[in-house]
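Moderator note: this is an archived Q&A kept for reference. The question asked for a predicted structure of one protein chain; the sequence and the answer are reproduced below.
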Amino acid sequence: MMPLEIRAATGGSSILTARFPYGDRATISDGGKSGRPRKEQFRPGAFTHSINSPNQEINLLVGHDFSRPLASKNAGTLQVDDRKDALIIEAEMLPAMKQTSHWQDFFAGYSSGLITGISPGFRIPPPSAVPVAEIFEEEPPSLGRAIIRTILAAILFEFSLVTRPAYRKTSVSIRDYVPPSEVSPDDAANDPYAMPSQFRNPQNRWR
């Protein structure tokens, strides 16, 4: 994983770059005393619909909290490059945003080495939209006894900067920038890709 870096920004803005790898297995549960471990991974292209849809908003947040936004796709400050091996997220941190308390909290945690990666906020689309959006398999006995969930298609709502990402190969960096010369209940009822209202509560977040 790349170390986190922050450099002074040209013109008052910064670029935050993050990487979320495909095929990286995260241990979601160790199974406790009697259960089986559960692991999770994303297949390349799992977020393609959300990235390509002109109406699908994607936010960059601090700690899965929509009250602490840093950038967004619809605002033009968040770009997502869907590659074969990973998602590359690039967010422009405007001078006004860097004055907010949540940016300064993030900066302090980042500078201290406490915020080390990113975590996606997502849900699985309904079968009416995607008949097979996930598959479950047995882990090879030589590797363990976990149940592995592979996500083939997911609705991406946000990425968050977090202290302990489940996907440990994620990375974040910030570099200099030289400037170039939410869904209502009614909408959600008609849109299978809409964000459920309960997911807007920071206590109901994802990895």
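Archived answer notes: Confidence is low (pLDDT under 50) at residues 176-185, 198-207.
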